[in-house]
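Long-time lurker, first post. I've been practising inverse folding by hand and with some scripts of my own, and I keep getting stuck on stretches where the structure tokens seem ambiguous. Below is the full token string for one chain I'm working on. Before anyone asks, I'm not after the true native sequence, just a reasonable design that respects the backbone. If someone could post their per-position residues I'd love to compare against what I wrote down in my notebook.
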């Protein structure tokens, strides 16, 4: 089965979310990563301390629209911009701003999507690619500081967002 035939794969809804986040972001935008997964509780992730110890009075997940929240977290001035956000397949936030322990494939593994892009690939991009190999992950999307998005499915690049 092709990854694009997976009923859980909703690139249109994910692209609309990315567009909304970018529209609401400011000059301080630094990028973000999204992991769409069937079961967030089974992922090897650790939520960043700043979000785990959210200040009293700060908006919570039920008080703020997802695109507003992601735009706020994507600012370089926050300690949350490096974290990945785990969403359910229907794009509900399950875990905000977390470190993901993505599997590291064998050293000699070089997917075709990396060829010719060596000087344009950063840590968030690689983490997104590797995280897409995790069981239960439907897709991963990363957006860099230049506002260019990339989707990954099953260890393969699946297009720009």
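-- Answer (accepted) --
I ran through it position by position. Result:
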């Amino acid at each position: 089965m092709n990854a694009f035939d997976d009923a859980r794969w909703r690139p249109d809804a994910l692209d609309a979310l990315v567009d909304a986040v970018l529209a609401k972001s400011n000059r301080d935008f630094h990028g973000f990563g999204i992991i769409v997964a069937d079961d967030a509780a089974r992922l090897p992730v650790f939520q960043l301390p700043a979000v785990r110890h959210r200040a009293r009075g700060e908006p919570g997940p039920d008080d703020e629209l997802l695109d507003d929240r992601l735009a706020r977290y994507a600012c370089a001035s926050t300690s949350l911009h490096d974290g990945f956000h785990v969403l359910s397949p229907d794009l509900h936030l399950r875990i905000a701003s977390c470190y993901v322990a993505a599997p590291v494939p064998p050293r000699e593994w070089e997917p075709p999507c990396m060829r010719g892009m060596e000087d344009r690939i950063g840590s968030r991009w690689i983490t997104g690619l590797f995280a897409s190999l995790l069981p239960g992950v439907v897709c991963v999307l990363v957006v860099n500081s230049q506002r260019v998005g990339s989707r990954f499915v099953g260890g393969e690049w699946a297009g720009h967002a």
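A couple of notes from the structure itself: The chain has a mean pLDDT of 83. The domain at 3-160 is CATH 3.40.1700.10 (YojJ-like (1). Happy to go over any region you disagree with.
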